[in-house]
Design goal:
With about 525 residues, this protein is an alpha/beta fold. It is about 50% helix and about 10% strand. The strands form four sheets. The protein has a six-stranded mixed β-sheet with strand order 1-6-5-2-3-4, sandwiched between helices. The N and C termini lie far apart (about 60 Å). The relative contact order is 0.12.
Length: about 525
């Protein structure tokens, strides 16, 4: 078992730069604070931010006080790091909106340590974990005042259909048992599921609580809390406007600005890169403000460490220099940067063809997040597991071994997608992503709600329909197909489907009566071309 944060970060190959290893270890021993800054340039963090969010939680699990500093003041200026041109400045109103949303995201992600009390029946119903017939029987038995033992055999069959964590991997019983053991999950969950037929009726009535307990344990694993008794310090969310906005210009220049050497500032990579294209004095001053943030937190919050992305080293060392000048050589401040998370092809992790993958469901649905993770390349998996999960070396090696035995099963991608979807959106978000994935895979799109369909196909062409029309008419009139002849050829090749069903009749009627939820109809041409019909 690894006992210090440096060894933990080293084996994960996370550290790019570090100012002083001994001071980091001292901070752990004294359980001091670490901070990382987040610019509220949007009302949601994105997947690229996740490595820093998880880093704060890693430090919290090693006893540190984690601080997320939201740049309410510095966001009004803009960080030049990693930028080729000056940012657009945000209004005060937009900043307030963004800060409130990001603060909630950070609190929810880093403070996770207790599982919410979900009603198993509600989860099973809402996310279609069972078909309607099975759910109705289950609902009737478990909600009955006097449950009838005559349903025992049916109950056994239905309860066996409730998936336990990682059963979607389709591993053999022995492989899944070994995976549970290596992940420190209780194998009794698997054994009891296999032994359902031998349980008494009263024991069966308690199985739903047993089933949800298995998922609780898996959620704890995704949060990094292998020991349920471990309590981490709640994250502090601070806003640097609370102290920077109190300064008067002349006071700041005299008391802080005098401690910054222009020659040294010009030598910082973040500034030097911008000198070729030009940098305003506004952005040039960003380094001074961030440096003062570190000094302020060191004094007021016992914050010994600052972390940041690989482009933040200049800002971090500026803060260290200021603390050294203000406090003296006995200062215990240290800084570190984390390697940029890139894929094997050199691309930044966290962006799709459509842009950034956000951590907010309103910007990126749980299904989109899950699919993005599911579609990662095999060669990137071990790096992603090390950087973005709390699995240890042995656990990652075992998952990798299982994956390499049969890469077509995409075991690594499924574990990664499950782990991060639960970490970001908790269990309901994961079940929702699976529900949509399974509905699409099994051509059961009519099992989805209108909002779920719209979240998947929000960017596809749309058609408004006021009256019933034939499929042929819609395809030709809206130029989805060039001619009636092309429509007939596509239908003959079974390349046209409506609401997930292949169409064999060119005169098939697109009607509000047969629409999903009597609202929308989804037409697919070929493998990837989708069109939504909205019924008025």
């Amino acid at each position: 078992m690894i006992n210090n944060i440096i060894d933990e970060l080293n084996w994960r190959k996370l550290i790019k730069d570090i100012s002083n290893t001994d001071k980091v270890l001292l901070a752990q021993k004294l359980q001091k604070a670490i901070y990382c800054g987040f610019d509220p340039t949007n009302d949601s963090l994105h997947l690229g931010n996740l490595i820093q969010v998880i880093l704060l939680r890693r430090f919290a699990l090693f006893g540190f006080q984690s601080i997320a500093l939201i740049g309410g003041a510095t966001a009004m200026i803009g960080d030049p790091s990693g930028k080729s041109q000056e940012r657009n400045l945000l209004s005060q109103e937009q900043l307030r909106t963004n800060m409130k949303a990001i603060a909630k995201q950070l609190t929810d992600l880093i403070n996770q340590q207790e599982f919410s009390d979900f009603n198993p029946l509600d989860l099973i119903r809402d996310f279609k974990i069972l078909n309607n017939h099975d759910f109705q029987i289950l609902d009737m038995v478990f909600k009955s005042i006097n449950p009838n033992a005559q349903y025992k055999d049916s109950l056994v069959v239905i309860l066996k259909k409730l998936p336990l964590p990682l059963q979607e991997l389709n591993l053999s019983a022995s492989e899944l048992h070994s995976l549970y053991q290596i992940l420190s999950l209780d194998v009794n969950y698997l054994q009891q599921q296999a032994n359902l037929a031998n349980l008494t009726f009263q024991q069966l009535l308690k199985y739903l609580n047993f089933w949800i307990a298995a998922w609780k344990e898996f959620c704890q694993l995704t949060w990094g809390q292998h020991n349920k008794a471990t309590k981490i310090k709640a994250i502090k969310i601070l806003n640097n406007a609370d102290w920077l906005s109190n300064f008067k210009l002349f006071d700041f220049l005299r008391d802080v600005g005098k401690d910054f050497n222009i020659n040294q500032m010009l030598g910082k990579e973040m500034v030097a890169k911008r000198l070729e294209t030009g940098i305003s004095y506004t952005e040039f001053s960003y380094m001074i403000l961030q440096g003062f943030d570190f000094y302020h937190l060191y004094n007021k919050e016992n914050c010994y460490l600052q972390s940041g992305g690989s482009d933040q080293w200049g800002n971090i060392t500026a803060g260290l220099d200021l603390i050294h000048k203000k406090v003296g050589p006995e200062s215990n401040a240290a800084g570190l940067t984390i390697n940029l998370l890139t894929k094997a092809n050199g691309e930044k992790f966290g962006k799709s063809e459509k842009g950034a993958i956000f951590l907010s469901q309103t910007k990126t649905s749980t299904y989109e997040l899950y699919q993005f993770l599911f579609n990662q390349e095999d060669k990137d998996l071990e790096k992603l597991f090390a950087s973005l999960t709390f699995f240890n070396q042995k656990q990652i090696a075992f998952i990798s071994q299982l994956h390499k035995k049969n890469p077509t099963l995409r075991i690594g991608q499924k574990v990664l997608a499950a782990t991060l979807t639960i970490f970001i959106h908790q269990l309901p978000g994961y079940f929702k992503a699976l529900k949509i994935t399974n509905a699409l895979f099994n051509n059961e799109i009519n099992q989805l709600t209108t909002s779920e369909i719209l979240s998947i196909f929000k960017d596809v062409p749309t058609i408004k329909q006021n009256s019933d029309q034939t499929l042929m008419t819609i395809l030709v009139d809206h130029k989805i197909c060039n001619s009636k002849r092309q429509v007939r050829e596509l239908i003959q090749d079974q390349a046209i489907s409506v609401n997930g069903q292949k169409i064999n009749d060119e005169n098939f009627i697109i009607s509000k009566k047969t629409a999903i939820n009597k609202q929308i109809t989804l037409i697919r041409k070929g493998k990837r071309n989708y069109y939504l019909v909205f019924h008025q």
